[in-house]
Every structure is written in structure tokens, then in C-alpha cells.
Amino acid sequence: MASLLPTHPLHSPADLDTLLAAIGDARVVLLGEASHGTHEYYTWRTALSKRLIQEKGFQFIAVEGDWPDCFEVNAAIKQEQMAHGSAAKLLQTFNRWPTWMWGNWEIAALVEWLHRHNQAQPMERRVGFYGLDVYSLWESLEAVLHYVEKQGDGAVTAARRAFRCFEPYSTDPQEYARAVAFVSEDCQDEVIAVLRALRHQAQERQPANLPEREQAFGAEQNALVAVNAERYYKAMIRGGGASWNVRDTHMMETLTRLLHLHGPNSKAIIWAHNTHIGDARYTDMRREDMVNIGQLTREQLGREQVFSVGFGSYQGSVVAGKAWGAPLENMPVPAAIRNSWEEQLHRQLKGANGLLLSSELKQETGLRQSQGHRAIGVVYRPQLEQFGNYVPSVIPERYDAFLFLDHTKALHPLAIHPEEKGPPDLYPWGE
Q1: Phi and psi of 265, rounded to 5°?
Q2: Does 98 sit behind a cis peptide bond, omega within 30 degrees of 0 on the bond before it?
Q3: Which SUPFAM superfamilies does this one have (predicted)?
Q4: How far apart (Å, rounded) are the C-alpha atoms in residues 364 and 362?
């Protein structure tokens, strides 16, 4: 670091004034995280999301989560009474590993707030909560079948045919992908037929109110998830970066659909890992021809319409698993390696938190080069961190702002903290 970087103090949500001003009139704000299991990333994103909703009229939050589970949350926060009696019980619907990503007390607090906020709004203006991801092939097929059978739609035949096509694989999309990855017989035509049938019906019907429009939209979205999930799992088995691109292109397609659903002036908040929201062109992902939603939003909506906020920390603890599907653990996060982005900020700020704006960082010539930036996934082994947890990044171009939180602690998963009211210390600023 050639010189001291311009930073702004970060102690409470009031310190986000500078960031709100920088966001300006952006239509999409992407909020990142350097892990899927860090308490402070969730609470600071919540604090910023509340202000975006209250002060700038943002209409929905879309997260790196499955569409069916998130759509259940979306319905609950718009009802007069919370489904299942509480947010904590509602979030038990997130039963796919890693369950802690959305099944945690930090998200429960956000869901409770969204529900309270919505009670004071007319139905057409109630804030939504949606999932952007593509993993839920079987769950989405079940949801489509349930919807069309309930509606008595002409799409029933196509939905049942698709459902039967996947049945031999025991609801395991990876088993399906292994079976069909290198042969010509698969279920691609069946899921595409379902999507076409639902889109044809959508052209014929014009639901009068938002709840009905959302139900029809949700069914079509589940069909779209099935189409893209089928592609995703086959690409994953074949290896390479194709599956990543299927996934993030699906996220962008979903975001575009949600913006259209909410109207020409709608505004969206995205919650996803830094590897998704930080422009891939300014990381080593570019060499592998990999894209992400951070890049795609800038390209498709215009850079002036998009504002991305990266997050990171120097050390602490995190919730993760040692392997895919392994039990969750509270793991230590060691001090960031020498000369990484996080270590440099730790040295400059002497253990304090800070907000950095890329418009100010770009004046520093030393930051035009790529440097290591920590990224922790749901699978994590602290002792091996230096060998694969740092993404070479041109920080001022990858993000529009960066929240540095020097010392962070692990998330509070519902599975570990089943107390009725949750942990008492979710918000250090006294909420």
C-alpha cells in the first residue's frame, strides 16, 4: 500500500450516510460477503438494507438462496400474520445444506422486521424476499406440479411428464446428471415444455392483483429453475467453468424478471457472496471466461444503475463445514496473510472498522494492480487458507465500495442456537 487509503469510520448504521449518498439513484445495490457464516456481514447488510428500503424505496431483497424456500418467506412477510408463528420457525424451511446460510437468527431478525414494515404498507408496496439460485430442481418441479394441479391448468400434462422423467433418480439431481451427462437421453425437453406451457398460459391470463400475479410468476419461475438446474447439474458433472456461468446467468435472468414484475422504476437489493457480486472481469475469473451477476448487472443495466458493496475482515470465527454436506462447525478465521487486502487495511486502521469508496480509491495508483482478497466458502479448512482462499482482485474496479470489519465472529445458526428469542447480542449498536 503506497500511501494511507481514504477511509470513513464505521461504528453504527448512522455511519452509512456516506455510503447512501454514494449509492445515489442506483437501481440495483449488490451487497456481498467474504463468507457465508459471518455474523457481522449479515447484520451490516441488514442495517444497509433497512435504510435502502426506508429512505430510497427499494422494493425487494433477492438472495443467494433457493427460489421455493425464499418464496415461502416472501409470502409470509406480506401476510397479516407471520406463517408458522415466528420467523425462526418459518426459516426451518431452509433444510438444504448449508442450512445455516438462511436458517439463522440474523435472518430471522430481518424477516421479523420486514413483516413489521410491510404491515404499514398497502399490498402493492410490500417489500419482497426472493431466491436467485438454481439448485432446487426437484423442489421446483414439485412446486410447479402442485400449482398446475390446483389451478387445473393445461400445463398439468407437461408437468407430470417432467416429474416422471426425473423420478428414477430418487430426487437427487446429481445422480440424474451423472446418468445422462454423456448420453443423448435426458429430461431437458420435458422441463422446457413445462416452461413453455406456463408462459403460454401467462399470455392468456392477466391476474388482477399482486398476490395472484406473484403466484403465477412463482410457478413460472420454478419452471425456469428446473430448466436451468437441469443444465447446471449436467455442466457440473462435466467439469470446468460452464456450471458457474449457468448459475450466475440464471441469477441475472431471475433479477431481470423480478425487476419487470415490480415495474419500470423498481429497485432491488441483492445479497450474495463477494465472488458473485464483485465484477468478475477484475478477478482471475476472467481468465477462465467466467462471469457473475456483478458483471452482468453492469453490462445489462448500465454501470450508473448498479452499485456493488464488497465485505471483508481480518480475523475472527466463521460457521462452515470441512467438506460438502459435513456437519457445520464454528471455526477460527486466522489473521489475513501478509500483503493481502485485508491485512493492509488491518495495519492502516489499527484494528478499527472502515468504509472505503472506490471513487476515492481510484486516485491511488498502487491499487490498479491485482492483490489477494480473502474469500471463504461453505467448505472451509482454516489450516489450508493460504493455499486457496485469496482471489486476485483489482478492488476499486471490482466493487463500488468496501466495508472492512476488522474482527468478526461466527453466525448464529438456528440449529445451534434454538433459544426462542435468539441470541441477545445480534446488534452491537443496540437494536
Answers
A1: -110, 20
A2: yes
A3: EreA/ChaN-like
A4: 5
The secondary structure of residue 393, as a DSSP letter, is E
Whether the CB-CB separation of 57 and 124 falls below 8 Å is answered with: no
State the greatest distance between any 2 C-alpha atoms of the chain, in Å, as a whole number.
Answer: 67
C-alpha 266 chain-centroid distance: 18
- Rounded distance between C-alpha atoms, residue 96 and residue 173, angstroms: 13
Nearest-angstrom CA–CA distance, 137 and 171:
9
* Count of residues making up the chain: 431
Nearest residue to 124 via CA among 78, 81, 83: 78
Give residue for cell 416472501: 74
pLDDT digits (tens, 9 = 90+) for 334-386: 999 999 999 999 999 999 999 999 999 988 767 778 999 999 999 999 998 87
Cα-based distances in Å from 134 to 139, 319, 397: 11, 23, 27
Instruction: Please state, in angstroms and as integers, the Cα–Cα distance from residue 143 to each residue in 140, 164, 191, following that order.
Output: 5, 14, 13
Per-residue pLDDT tens digits for 177-217: 888 776 667 889 999 999 998 888 777 777 767 778 898 89
- The whole-angstrom distance between residue 265's C-alpha and the CA centroid of its chain comes to 22
Rounded CA separation 64/209 (Å): 27
Q: Which of 36, 37, 32 is nearest to 330 (CA)?
A: 37
Q: How far apart are CA 362 and CA 264, in angstroms?
A: 32
- DSSP three-state, residue 403: strand
Contact 275, 391 (CB under 8 A): yes
Q: Which residue has the cell 454423456?
A: 182
| Cell numbers placing 270 | 441483492
Determine the Cα–Cα distance for residues 225 and 139; give it in Å rounded to an integer.
Answer: 10
Collapsing DSSP states into helix, strand and coil, what is residue 222? helix
Q: Are strands 128-131 and 329-333 parallel, antiparallel or unpaired?
A: unpaired
Cis bond before residue 68 (omega within 30° of 0): no
Q: Minimal CA–CA distance to 355: which of 3, 1, 2, 18?
A: 18
